[in-house]
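Below is our example:

___
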Amino acid sequence: MLREKKLAVLAISVMLSGAAAACPLHFGAEQGELDLPGASQLLINSIFLEKSDDLQALKPLPPAATFQRASWWLRIFAKSLHEHHIEDLHIVLADIPLWSHLLPSPSPIRIDVEQPESTAKVVMLTQVGLQALITRSISMQQALSLGLVRLHQVDDETRSKLEQLAI
């Protein structure tokens, strides 16, 4: 109950904070906000867990270096997904927003692709959430329960594989 109250207070303060709203890496100001159900809540959850030191904070980097770091993490994530026979889905880092397409094996991931017309088979997370998964600070199951990862129109088989994913 206390954690829910903290989340509500943080959500309100973040929404009212001009400094936070101006940050393009948290709210997609440069490229437009992500128009997916649950994107705002995912961002708030991520910020809350980072600010409360439950997740390791990201080192601020210039945009090009941020893109390189995110790309590296996405490639590691994609390798793990391929090893667990998860493929042909879109991944979006909601705080940038950066779309990627995980192609069928053995093809690599395509990073910085256009947002698909359909939101079917989409894994949505943030850079902080992706870092936590890659560094094994949290499991995929924990990330899902904390609201750091959201799955959109993912079939039951893929959902089950993702829930049991160990990176």
